């Protein structure tokens, strides 16, 4: 039996993808509001994050899409308006945020979404839905990379490649909060922004060779893999670790081990408990989520175009209300 609050409409606005291709294939339609099943809640979505995987999936280079039309979107922030059977710990009216069902499709580009209760965390009262929607996937990626894999600690030197981006700008703050010395790489125009987040040293990778500036680093976060991975090994001291966000490539681990280094690979997954820990850092101001641009739901195509232009400071989000 499903418990819901009133009023919940019968239909909602949703952005669907009709096939692989450009942002023009994203269109606004009306669809029935779904009902939560056992262990699930119905969330009225106030805002949703636009991630790089959203863009890649739309273009046919991301996660599998079993059928069209499909609904993209994994990061959401909103209000619980319905409870499925067996849900405990959440109630109608709770403000929540989460990364849903990834890598399966979750349907976040919509006014309402059904979410597994275990994949949600309570949104701090002082944090906007816009900021919370920008958090889940990059926050979990940064946490799983730096806290789970690297176990970043006070006194270490940490290099964050792509420090102004979605994952990067949160990773800088997590490393800073842990007491590490933080080195960030970004274009010159983003140096002031990244420094404001806690970076102790900035490297403009368009003007400087990272390997000539950074030395004796304990932890490197590598978002790109490939030759970047190989070159970044040169800045790590023996016993250090490189955590990469890309798929494992032949020879990577052997090369790292030959230099006395460790390698870890982050495959982000939903985790409401970890998001709950991250929410504490948001609540006390140790971490903030920067949102550079917000678009209306019907402007999802424009949001994808903005993401493809790159060099975003922080996050791009969709607002459903």
What is this structure's SSE topology?
Layout: E1 3-4, E2 11-17, E3 26-32, E4 40-50, H1 52-58, E5 75-83, E6 95-99, E7 112-116, E8 120-122, H2 129-133, H3 136-149, E9 157-160, H4 166-177, E10 181-185, H5 191-196, E11 201-203, H6 210-213, E12 217-222, H7 226-232, E13 236-244, H8 252-258, E14 262-265, H9 272-283, E15 291-296, H10 300-309, E16 315-319
Parallel strand pairs: 9-10, 9-12, 10-11, 12-13, 13-14, 15-16
Antiparallel strand pairs: 1-5, 2-3, 4-5, 4-7, 4-16, 5-6, 6-8
Helix pairs in contact: 3-4
Description:
By secondary structure, the protein is an alpha/beta fold. The protein contains ten helices and 16 strands. The chain has helices spanning 52-58, 129-133, 136-149, 166-177, 191-196, 210-213, 226-232, 252-258, 272-283, 300-309; strands at 3-4, 11-17, 26-32, 40-50, 75-83, 95-99, 112-116, 120-122, 157-160, 181-185, 201-203, 217-222, 236-244, 262-265, 291-296, 315-319. Strands 1, 4, 5, 6, 7, 8, 15 and 16 form an eight-stranded mixed β-sheet that branches. β10, α5 and β11 (201-203) form a beta-alpha-beta unit. α3 (136-149) packs across α4.
């Amino acid at each position: 039996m499903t418990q819901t609050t009133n009023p919940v409409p019968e239909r909602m606005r949703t952005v669907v993808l009709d096939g692989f291709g450009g942002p023009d294939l994203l269109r606004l339609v009306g669809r029935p509001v779904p009902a939560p099943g056992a262990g699930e809640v119905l969330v009225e979505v106030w805002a949703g994050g636009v991630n790089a995987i959203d863009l890649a999936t739309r273009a046919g280079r991301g996660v599998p899409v079993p059928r069209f039309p499909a609904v993209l979107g994994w990061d959401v922030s909103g209000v619980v308006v319905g409870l499925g059977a067996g849900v405990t710990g959440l109630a109608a009216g709770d403000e929540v945020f989460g990364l849903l069902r990834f890598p399966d499709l979750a349907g976040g580009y919509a006014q309402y979404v059904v979410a597994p209760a275990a994949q949600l965390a309570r949104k701090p009262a002082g944090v906007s839905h816009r900021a919370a929607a920008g958090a889940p996937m990059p926050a979990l990626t940064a946490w799983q990379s730096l806290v789970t894999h690297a176990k970043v600690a006070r006194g270490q030197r940490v290099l964050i490649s792509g420090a102004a981006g979605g994952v990067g700008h949160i990773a800088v703050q997590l490393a800073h909060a842990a007491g590490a010395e933080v080195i960030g790489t970004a274009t010159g125009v983003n140096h002031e922004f990244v420094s404001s987040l806690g970076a102790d040293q900035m490297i403009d990778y368009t003007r400087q060779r990272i390997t000539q500036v950074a030395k004796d680093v304990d932890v490197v976060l590598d978002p790109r893999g490939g030759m970047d991975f190989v070159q970044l090994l040169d800045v790590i001291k023996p016993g250090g670790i490189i955590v990469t966000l890309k798929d494992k490539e032949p020879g990577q681990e052997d090369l790292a081990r030959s230099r006395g280094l460790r390698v870890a690979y982050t495959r982000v997954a939903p985790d409401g408990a970890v998001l709950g820990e991250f929410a504490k850092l948001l609540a006390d101001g140790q971490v903030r989520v920067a949102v550079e641009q917000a678009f209306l739901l019907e402007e999802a195509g424009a949001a994808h175009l903005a993401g493809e232009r790159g060099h975003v400071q922080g996050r791009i989000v969709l607002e459903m209300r």
